[in-house]
Amino acid sequence: MTIEQSIEDTYSLITHIKTDHFFSGINNAPVIILGSSLGGTLAVLLRQKYPGLSIASFSLNPILLVREDYSSWRDYEVAKKILLIDPSCK
After folding, report:
1. Cα–Cα nearest to 35, from 45, 26, 25
2. What pTM did the predictor assign?
3. How buried is 48 (Cβ within 10 angstroms: 0-12 exposed, 13-18 middle, 19+ buried)?
4. What is the distance between the alpha carbons of residues 78 and 90, in angstroms, rounded to a whole number?
5. What is the DSSP code (8-state) at residue 86?
6. pLDDT tens digit string along 36-62?
7. In sequence order, what are the beta bridge partners of 32?
8. Is 54 buried (19+), middle (13-18) or exposed (0-12) by CB count in 10 A?
């Protein structure tokens, strides 16, 4: 699932709950979106794409810079050396 799909799914869920007759009376209730790590990133991006959906968005430790090439990270290199020394460490 892509982040775009997650944003659209979350938007659909919120709008569905607010318009569903089972949850009658909450269609004008304010929504606050919050999350941490990947959920925090989703909260920020959802607020950017649909600013009228919520009254606030809180994000704790969002992932703002994603790298696809982890081989440049020092921790990855250290972990790779440990695995090469002791293959049972997995």
Report:
1. 45
2. 0.65
3. exposed
4. 13
5. -
6. 888 888 998 999 999 999 999 988 887
7. 56
8. middle
Interatomic CA distance for residues 53 and 19, integer angstroms: 13
When computed from its CA atoms, the radius of gyration of the chain, rounded to whole angstroms, is: 19
| Contact call for residues 26 and 17 (beta carbons, < 8 A) | yes
DSSP assignments along 8-69, one per residue: HHHHHHHHHHHH-GGGTT-TT---EEEEETHHHHHHHHHHHH-TTT-SEEEEES------S-
Number of residues in the chain = 90
Structure tokens at 32: 């606050």
CB 43, CB 33: distance < 8 Å:
yes
Query: Is 77 strand, coil or helix?
Result: helix
